[in-house]
């Protein structure tokens, strides 16, 4: 006799003696008609079935898991009968279809949100041609910063139309690109992965004939962001493509982005941090995702000062600088020295004014990669001179 039969027997036996009394009392109190014996038995049986239901469901789940394990093991070992093999393959096909349908549903939902966004016509190029100049930790940091930048653009109410990642190949950027591929970057919306370096892209942009790189338009001008530039950026234009150097170098490489742009004949410009943020005692060196977020914020606000304040951490505006002593932070008055102006342990990358966070409408606090890795080297000197 199984549990269900046992419960049914009990319901019709000793427990039915209690049930009528309870039912009769409750019925009399409620002024309802008394239940017949058959109705009382039926009610007791239904109550027992309700109690048994979760137990039966759990037992069925265990049975299915065991059956699945037997089928998968037998299929792998080739010991299944023809009938069981067919059953296993049919189940696997159904599971695959469910996963595909679920993935397509999520993509359709995301595309629906993005279709409602107003897209800004300008573009950004992430110059990833610095793989050989970075350590493994710096490569890891840059990988995270690029992910933050993508998220900032995806969640923005006014995203850039395209983010082009140059040097996206195992031959030029084997370590960084290898990490990015693991993030399933093919599904990053409005992101383009160009195997050519910035030099090749610049030549294609100057050529009036031939196919343009994906994400770029005819008539757009390249502008390499560098804190060492003599030109200060006053506004953003849709016919300009802003290049951000993707490098974390702990201050080893001076003037790298500026020299790179000059060699390629690309116009340079610096973000107007010194003009709008005068009370920033620490070095004006930012991460790649911070710089990108500043550009996104400016497009939304049309106000450089508000964009900087939305992205740059508030501690950077402190009139005292921090130093680490014996594992603890202490504050000291800023003396203007470039080396002391930086928090000890922060990385520098060669873009000075490069970085990103979520737009203010989504997240008022700036998004920071782990370790607060900083950008800059050639940009650092220029920022200190601002």
Automatic annotation (TrEMBL):
This protein's name: tRNA (guanine(9)-N1)-methyltransferase
Domain SAM-dependent MTase TRM10-type: residue ranges: 103-319
EC numbers for this chain: 2.1.1.221
Leading EC class: transferase
UniProt GO MF annotations: tRNA (guanosine(9)-N1)-methyltransferase activity; tRNA binding
GO annotation terms (biological process): tRNA N1-guanine methylation
Species assigned in the record: Dioszegia hungarica
Comp. bias (Basic and acidic residues): 48-71, 332-342
Cellular compartments per GO CC: nucleus
Entries under PROSITE patterns matching the protein: SAM_MT_TRM10
Entry annotated with the keyword Transferase: yes
Signal peptide start and end residues: none
Gene3D superfamilies: 3.40.1280.30
Annotated region (Disordered), positions in chain: 1-78, 91-111, 319-377
Compositionally skewed regions (Polar residues) per UniProt: 9-18
Keyword Transmembrane part of the UniProt annotation: no
